[in-house]
Amino acid sequence: MAQSFDQSYRGQRRGRGSGRGRGYGRGRGYQSRSEYDCRRPNSSFIGSGRKPWRILFGFRRLTELKDKESNEILLHLTSNKDSLEDAFNETDHDEEMFRLILRCCAKACQCESLSQKLLEFLVILEDSKFLKATLTDYMIRLQNLPSSEIELHEDRLLDIMMIFTQLKMRVPHAMLLSLGVLAMLEGVLQAVENECGGVSYKLAAAFKEWKETKQIVVKQNASKQNKRYMPIAEDEWLPPENFRDIPVFPESVDINVQDMPFLRRNKVEGRYLDLNHYLDVQFRLLREDFIAPLREGVKEYIEAVSTNGKTTRLQDVRIYTDVQIVSPTCSNLGLCQRVTFLCPGFNRIRWESSKRLIFGSLVVLSADKFETFFFATVANRDLKDVRKGLVDLQFECDSQRLTSVPQGTIFVMAETSAYFEAYRHVLLGLQNMKEGDLPFEKYIVHCEVNVQPPAYLCRQPSARMDLRPLVDEDMWLRDESHQPGRRVQDASKPVYTFSARANMANNIKVTDERYWPDPELLHLDNSQFDAVRTALSKEFVIIQGPPGTGKTYIGLKIVRALLHNKSLWTTDPITREHNNKPLLVVCYTNHALDQFLEGIINFYKGDVLRLGGRSSSEIMKNYSIANKRETLRRNRSIPRAIYKERTETRLRVKALRTSINLLAARIESAKMNILHEECLQAIISQKHFRNLIRGYELVKLQDNTRDFRNAKKRKECALIEWLGYAQLLQQNTKERISKDRETTTEDDLVNVINEIDAETQQRQTDAYDDEHNVNENEAIAEVTNSLSSLGIGENTVAINVSEMDDDDAINPEMSFRSKNNSNEWEIQGQQKRSMKKNLKQQLRSNDSMNDAEVSQIRDIWNLSSENKWRLYRHWIFQYCNIIHRKIDQNEEEFKNACKAHLEIQMQEDKDIMKHATVIGMTTTCAAKYQPVLKELGPRIIVVEEAAEVLEAHVITTLSKQCEHLILIGDHQQLKPNPTVYKLAQNFNLDLSLFERMIKNKLEYNCLQQQHRMRPEIAKIMKIIYPSLLNHEIVHTYEDIKGVSKNVFFVDHSEKESSEEESRSRSNQHEAEYIAGLCKYLLLQGYSSYQITVLTLYSGQLFCLKQKMPKSIFDGVKITVVDNFQGEENDIIILSLVRSNAEDNIGFLSIENRVCVALSRAKKGFYVIGNFEMLARKNQLWKSIINLAKDDEFISEGLTLYCQNHPNDKGIYAKLGSDFKKAPEGGCMKPCDVRLRCGHTCTRACHVSDRKHEQFKCMKPCVKKACNLGHRCQGRCSHKCPPCMSLIDKTLPICGHIQNVPCSMDPLKWSCTDKCQKILKCNHLCENLCGESHTDRCQVLVKKDWSCGHSAKIECYMSNMQCPSICKSEIGCGHLCKGTCGQCFQGRLHKACKQRCNHTLLCEHPCKNYCSNCPPCILKCENRCIHSNCQKTCGELCIQCIEKCEWQCPHFRCTKLCSQPCDRPRCYHRCSCLLRCGHRCIGVCGEPCLTLCKICNKDQLTKIFSGLDDKPYALFVQLEDCSHIFEVDWLDKWMDNDSQTREIKTPVKLKECPKCNKPIRRNVRYGNLIKHTLKDIETVKQKLEQRKSELEYSALRKSRSLVSSDRRIFNELYSRNQISSQNKFAAVENQIRFLITLSEIKEKYQNEVVKSRTGGIELLNALQQIDELHDFIIKDRSYFTIQETDDILREIERFNLLLKYSLLKEWKLKSDVKMDASFDVNLRRVARYLTDGNPLIDRRKVFVTKFLKVIEDLVPRLGLGLSDGVRTVLVNTKQLFKGYWYKCKNGHVYAIDASAGETEGSICPECKTTIGGRIHRLRERTETSL
């Protein structure tokens, strides 16, 4: 840091005398800032490879950065953490640089919407020299300055306090440093106050807030006590603790508590004491609203279980039993867990209508009767999965705690329907709200009634508004500067052409009533006019709108005026410059939000943005946040920092999610189904696997003797047979009975809008998108390869249990019987259901064997059924554990990546939002976007449906910068709906801010004139709204057709039904009546979209759905009343449902709901219910029913009249069946109208289509169809079709006579006689005469192949390869499983796919295929007393550097743990006493034995027979296997190899003499173990070195390939990430083979041109060369030994064939006479080389000898034969035992010899002789150890 501050620094900056008067700083004393940034050395950078920090965080960059927004600064600072650390650790910053760093850091700390990035930044800052040294030095120097100068540092002090405030809140361990700075700062401020009389208000307020934050943190870190729970509190009581200390998420104290929590009532009337009192009340009530159901439900459950051992129906929660975590799964929001569950009556639950486990619901899981538990929320509820008992949960706990839960743990789960996510954000918003943050506090908290004008108007006393758009309503408002995708501000205002009449509404001073024009000019009635005037002139506005009075219309009028005059409220109050603060519209429901925003875009062409739940509006999709994101991304208009960060996090999330989900799917499949034994082959021991397969083969053999046909059909799976479910598998494949045929499908029923759909749509937002698909193939390949290396292939499901249904219908005719009566067996339906049920129960059980039990099993077929299942579950647990370990590697990274992606996407949304003029949100979305709204600071907020929103949701939406709040709603309609009814009843939680302000006498406007309901309906509403007036338009409505009354109440006494699962109600009588009435109204000519059916109960919805098929009622809206608030329709049919003996009217007693239900209809309103019961129980209903009786619109039936016969007596419809008396909407009389065709209308009296313009006569046509007099066969109303009567006609093409339709041309008729054409193959064509001749003759013919095999095949398949099984023994010792054709007659065999099973150096079995032993990827088992190795076996181990622990009273090792010990073995007896009290017979310094010489004498005698002869014998117990040996004997045995001086010793761990288990851990023999492990590490290093060599060699040699091969090679190399030396070796060998083959091919092509005989053999050879080329170049990971041998043999054959061809040509040209044996041998050579069979050694020897003899003669005869082309291959180093050795000088080498390369007789490093023979290694002759 510089040595002085501003004053002293000014003198240093100016150079002296060298500037020559050219300006400031030109002399040598000043170095330019750019030079300072770029030239100054950085010690932390030099040699480290880091990017110099001055490039990213130098003076110039920070100067640009400090004026940007906080999120941009934070993203830039964290973009390169290494450079940021260097910048913070630089100690030589000057004063200006110090000030810049402080400013940027403080501004970055203001970005609360990037919490994870902020935490990363603070962690770097907290550990830096800048904070610990530079800043501390600054504070010390500040203390020494005069008090008068300290005020100059106010900005820096404010920045320091901002930084330390965030440090204390987010990095608690920085508290000590914070306290030190706080103490120094307090001293500085105290000195200023004493000398100067005080500090500035801004500095004092910030310091006070900082101290309060400190106190909060100290309290949070103090010991927690249960103060939260105490008796019900009164207003004057003080809370037991600060509500900001209470965690938002519930804790154990919240569930396991007996007392009531500390709660105070929401005040209906009167003021709160202060802001903290107000926030405390709201926070505690809202938190209790989601916790109370869980607490009460868990309490009920525990009491029920402890009382009678089983649960009953609980009031507050739903209980699920047998809950198990199946597997992890990834969602867009983070890592989830898929769980299985059961619950009472599971199969009876109607999941599509049930509120169970909907998205966002809170659940608690416990395995110990709720002593401890896990909280989670429902993350995904797929209907298909939940019907199987599967749901995805997102746990709210540390991942390590969840990982520690043992597999198979059984939980009980309790669920409450509370949507926790909304609670979380609102509660956090309440806690983060501080003094001064809540706008309009004087009204909301202190209940002042004198409302002031908006602050933006108060700052501009002369401000005027232009209200002309309210006059000219067809005028479009424009905002050219904020069109989608644009970022350039345009200050010019759009020009409008208003009417002359509208000018009277221009230049209005809205705060003065005298300036306002008449209401008629603005198209408003008086009450609407008052509401608009108040809304534009007051800062806190409440507008009540009774039904039909136009709340939305008035809201849009207000918004229109505000948008046109937005320059008034978008001016910055400090700079007086334009800034785009948006207008925020908040609605409770998605529908209301869409409706309001659609109204705005109907008059406003500007930047409108919609956020929130999923919109069903097609119009609003173009304005959604998702659409805006896509547009900006397409236009590349996203800020670079955001784009870069979002791209990186998205790709990381996608790759991790793909990988985890693939692995998780395998776990889920393994736990839910029965796997095939092939999947578990790597898990099952070799002994047990062989036992399983041999036992299965024996069963198959027995089945074949009983019934060969049945055995052939049986699916090949040994595990199914072993478990005893083979019969079920066989029958299950036969039975496919669809229940859907017997019942009506879901698609056939009318759509209903139920509460579940509405609530789910409300909860799910469009905040997360994933528009770009990354390539998942790489992730899939990576997962597959990693599991394949473990021996785990694809999941093969033997029985798909998850798709089974316990109640499958059983067809009696399908019982399975053997045809052989002596061996008859069958599975009856009941037995099959029992087997399926048992199968599912067995899979859900968690009882499994342990390793000890498994190791003792000899024959798995002799186990009981129970033990078989226990063993199977043991295998499955092991299988899942392996995959779980793979998932655990990525779990935490995925969580962090998801969080980072969500945060950066929110920053992208913020960038979009700050350029929008109007933003629309649901309350749920507003809660989620709180941090962003706080930073955006909208000045005007309009809340629609404000009376339905909880008060806490509204106030957390308000930002500090809000200056104008407009609440629109009606508290006499729907109110807020808390989860806990008692909180609404006893604590007024259902009191909205809207209603509370009205009750506290705050000025509000009530609209009075309704424009919706016809007068008869409005008359009912006047009981609730006495002053409600009717607009003249409602008097013009026409009467409803076909009924006697426009408004009618149908009274009945039919009893309701209770829906036990949904806890709802239904009424069959009402559903039937409504279905009949609705159909009748549709028949009157009304559109389905003019009719809405409402009910107050969701149970009735689905009752109605069953009665109303989609074919008739499609388009009719059917929903519950709550979802229809704010909407209307021409005709409303209302079902009241309730009718019971107890006179319980439920929801019908709530006046608000009744108000909504009765006010939705415009023209016709029909209600059905038990009105006598309602009148008895409720005063409001009594008043309504009395009015109905007075006006005669209530009765037991509705009178219908026929529009065609109005004078007839009508139909009295009392029951739903009565509507059938008007089947066509008229009456039962026949129509009898004569149609145009002369027929009579056959329909009953119908209202629609009276003129029969659309009626189609369906009687038979009487016209003649052709000239021959045939009668038309069609219908009367249809056009007469061509005559189709059959007559004989002669076909001109073939001459056959056929029956042809009368109207058809014979040329177009296809002859149906048999074709007589003889094909080229001399077989008769099997097609019809009129069809084209077949090109696939299917006559069976005998085919002989050159390999000697023959078979009958279809004629057209003559070119097929030989299908006979090869069965040759290949290089690995296994039989080839390819066909003769696939193996090219044995020349090129298919790769062997048998498991390798070699024992690797690490002692694990290799689970890969033959000839491929990659590095082992199982967890390394090397360990010491201090720690375990966390890597895989194939990776280099990290050496332990702890101090060696091998010590005893006699000796002590002084080396490190991984180094050879420097002490000898101790031979003294151990002095410890065993548990039995006798002295241990082990060796001093070794672990004590588990056996006693006295107590366990018999066992020790078996171990050491000389126990009596050698009474002082000591023993050693091996720690790996627990076997015990006499110490002298074991010492000799262990030292055997090390003391012998053999020329070579194998590299391997010593093994237990009894069980052959490797000895990895034993301090006595530690040096031997360490030496061996060191040798194994040397092997790993050699393999890595070999891989690098092969990679370089392959790339170098690839340049020698021909262009086509090089192109293919480059494509393969770039597509597949090569990571193993086997792959590199395979690539290089491919290249070498291809180079050799291209040389051979070139020679053949040259010889073909020269050949006089045409070179038939050469041409055939060229075709075979191409086949070999394709065989070599295919994508492969390795070459098997057999493949290598086959390719070399083929290359040798081609070389010999070329020599033969030259010899044959020479013979034709030469005059030399040869004896008869020459021709015989030449023909024999030709046969050996060209008959297609492999060139075996016997053939090769003969051909080579013959050609050698001729070759010796050629020089004398003029014949020139050249040597063939040869190939030298590279070898791979393998990892199995018997391959690696160590010479006597300690060098490690591999036995390796192939194709002429040997490492045999001498050591490759020291050249010492290691053997007199060449070691030749083949897998089939592996060295035994």
Number of helices: 56
User: How would you characterize the largest beta sheet?
Assistant: 7 strands, parallel
In the sheet with the most strands, the strands line up as 11-14-9-15-16-8-17
In the CATH hierarchy, the architecture of the largest domain is 3-Layer(aba) Sandwich
Which residues sit in consecutive blocks of at least 5 with pLDDT less than 50? 1-50, 214-232, 482-491, 705-715, 731-744, 771-775, 806-827, 1756-1762, 1793-1800, 1812-1825
What does the radius of gyration come to? 45 Å
Distance between the termini: 69 Å
Strand content: 5-15%
Q: Based on the structure, what is the oligomeric state of the protein chains? A: single chain
Q: Give the overall shape.
A: globular
Average pLDDT, rounded to a whole number, is: 78
CATH level-4 homologous superfamily of the largest domain: P-loop containing nucleotide triphosphate hydrolases
Text of the CATH class of the largest domain: Alpha Beta
Task: Name the features.
1825 residues; alpha/beta; Elongation Factor Tu (Ef-tu), domain 3; Rossmann fold; 8 domains; seven-stranded parallel beta sheet; 56 helices; disordered C terminus
Task: Furnish the topology, listing elements before pairings.
Elements lengths: L5 H8 L19 H7 L13 H5 L1 H7 L4 H8 L3 H9 L5 H14 L6 H12 L2 H15 L3 H4 L3 H17 L4 H22 L4 H21 L30 H4 L19 H34 L9 E14 L2 E9 L18 E6 L7 E7 L2 H4 L3 E6 L3 H5 L7 E9 H13 L8 H4 L10 H4 L9 H4 L5 E2 L47 H12 L2 E5 L6 H14 L18 E5 L2 H12 L2 E2 L2 E3 L14 H11 L4 H33 L1 E2 L10 H21 L1 H6 L4 H6 L2 H9 L20 H9 L13 H12 L8 E3 L29 H16 L6 H5 L9 H49 L4 E5 H6 L1 H7 L3 E4 L7 H7 L6 E6 L11 H7 L5 H7 L5 E2 L2 E2 L4 H7 L7 E2 L16 E5 L5 E3 L4 E3 L1 H16 L7 E5 L2 H10 L2 H4 L3 E4 L8 E7 L15 H7 L3 E9 L1 H7 L1 H12 L3 E2 L2 E3 L10 E3 L11 E6 L13 E3 L39 E5 L6 E5 ...
Parallel strand pairs: 7-10, 8-16, 8-17, 9-14, 9-15, 11-14, 15-16, 18-19, 20-26, 20-27, 23-24, 23-25, 25-26
Antiparallel strand pairs: 1-2, 1-6, 2-5, 3-4, 3-6, 4-5, 12-13, 21-22, 28-29, 30-31, 32-33, 34-35, 36-37, 38-39, 39-40, 41-42
Helix pairs in contact: 4-7, 5-7, 7-11, 9-12, 11-13, 15-18, 18-38, 22-23, 23-24, 26-32, 26-35, 42-43, 46-47, 50-52, 52-53, 52-54, 53-54, 54-55, 54-56, 55-56
